[in-house]
């Protein structure tokens, strides 16, 4: 029995019951693949159900306002995925008359769809013989075949794709692709895999050579930037507040937030009070500023660590176009701000 047969047999016995595996509808498979980028299945599942319920077809998604899409995406992170998802839905619905591209080559032309996602849709929806290569596949192949190529190198993708293509049964690419990803997710996990109870424990090169913990090789390290956010929550006599939309490119594009002071480090009352009065609210009469929590919230993104402090700022005047607490929750916020609102710390 060769690698692919053993792998597929394992998959058919151990695969998880996932909704996107019960369909060949490219819309649902596309949704699931975009949602599962940088996201665990357990986290993405509720969002998949929410989106397919709210937007049963690609046209339903295309016709929705972007804010509604972002609100439904709230908490899933990497919000550019949601924006690209929406734009691509509009392109498919309006330009392609609701018909998904039916080949790997054409799928690659869609915004937000890279080689992995195109391969997944092409194989799962159309059974096209094209291998998927993600982190799980890198790990399984590098260990089984003892491939020491640094997966951070641009050339690695091509090498591993060629290897996957060589061992993939051309008459059953969809099941093979699902199987190798599932094997990496459940069995050949990054840390402390259960090699004793692995179907490949007699043929895995890394296990035989004692190199399981060393593979795959990945030398490139992400440089993390620290940023310091001070959110000033205005509150007028009616209890209303003020929010703004992040329109500049970068993190949280088109999501909402409270007025922001970004500083070079964690700062105290004096700095927030002075800059808040001078830079953010020169037209308001501030009658009190206080920090809403003792500890700074550290929100970790892939390349940035955000050190966030919340401050309540009471003003004498009525805020023009002020937002009340009930309406506030209807806007799409970064999850760290939404959690703050949910805890009602706004009334600290």
From TrEMBL:
<keyword id="KW-0408">Iron</keyword>
<keyword id="KW-0378">Hydrolase</keyword>
<dbReference type="InterPro" id="IPR000445">
    <property type="entry name" value="HhH_motif"/>
</dbReference>
<feature type="domain" description="HhH-GPD">
    <location>
        <begin position="35"/>
        <end position="186"/>
    </location>
</feature>
<keyword id="KW-0479">Metal-binding</keyword>
<dbReference type="Pfam" id="PF00730">
    <property type="entry name" value="HhH-GPD"/>
</dbReference>
<keyword id="KW-0227">DNA damage</keyword>
<dbReference type="InterPro" id="IPR011257">
    <property type="entry name" value="DNA_glycosylase"/>
</dbReference>
<comment type="similarity">
    <text>Belongs to the Nth/MutY family.</text>
</comment>
<keyword id="KW-0326">Glycosidase</keyword>
<dbReference type="GO" id="GO:0006284">
    <property type="term" value="P:base-excision repair"/>
</dbReference>
<comment type="function">
    <text>Adenine glycosylase active on G-A mispairs. MutY also corrects error-prone DNA synthesis past GO lesions which are due to the oxidatively damaged form of guanine: 7,8-dihydro-8-oxoguanine (8-oxo-dGTP).</text>
</comment>
<dbReference type="InterPro" id="IPR003265">
    <property type="entry name" value="HhH-GPD_domain"/>
</dbReference>
<keyword id="KW-0234">DNA repair</keyword>
<keyword id="KW-0004">4Fe-4S</keyword>
<dbReference type="Pfam" id="PF00633">
    <property type="entry name" value="HHH"/>
</dbReference>
<dbReference type="InterPro" id="IPR015797">
    <property type="entry name" value="NUDIX_hydrolase-like_dom_sf"/>
</dbReference>
<dbReference type="GO" id="GO:0035485">
    <property type="term" value="F:adenine/guanine mispair binding"/>
</dbReference>
<dbReference type="GO" id="GO:0000701">
    <property type="term" value="F:purine-specific mismatch base pair DNA N-glycosylase activity"/>
</dbReference>
<dbReference type="InterPro" id="IPR044298">
    <property type="entry name" value="MIG/MutY"/>
</dbReference>
<dbReference type="GO" id="GO:0006298">
    <property type="term" value="P:mismatch repair"/>
</dbReference>
<dbReference type="InterPro" id="IPR029119">
    <property type="entry name" value="MutY_C"/>
</dbReference>
<keyword id="KW-0411">Iron-sulfur</keyword>
<dbReference type="GO" id="GO:0046872">
    <property type="term" value="F:metal ion binding"/>
</dbReference>
<dbReference type="InterPro" id="IPR005760">
    <property type="entry name" value="A/G_AdeGlyc_MutY"/>
</dbReference>
<dbReference type="Pfam" id="PF14815">
    <property type="entry name" value="NUDIX_4"/>
</dbReference>
<dbReference type="GO" id="GO:0051539">
    <property type="term" value="F:4 iron, 4 sulfur cluster binding"/>
</dbReference>
<dbReference type="InterPro" id="IPR023170">
    <property type="entry name" value="HhH_base_excis_C"/>
</dbReference>
<protein>
    <recommendedName>
        <fullName>Adenine DNA glycosylase</fullName>
        <ecNumber>3.2.2.31</ecNumber>
    </recommendedName>
</protein>
<dbReference type="GO" id="GO:0032357">
    <property type="term" value="F:oxidized purine DNA binding"/>
</dbReference>
<dbReference type="GO" id="GO:0034039">
    <property type="term" value="F:8-oxo-7,8-dihydroguanine DNA N-glycosylase activity"/>
</dbReference>
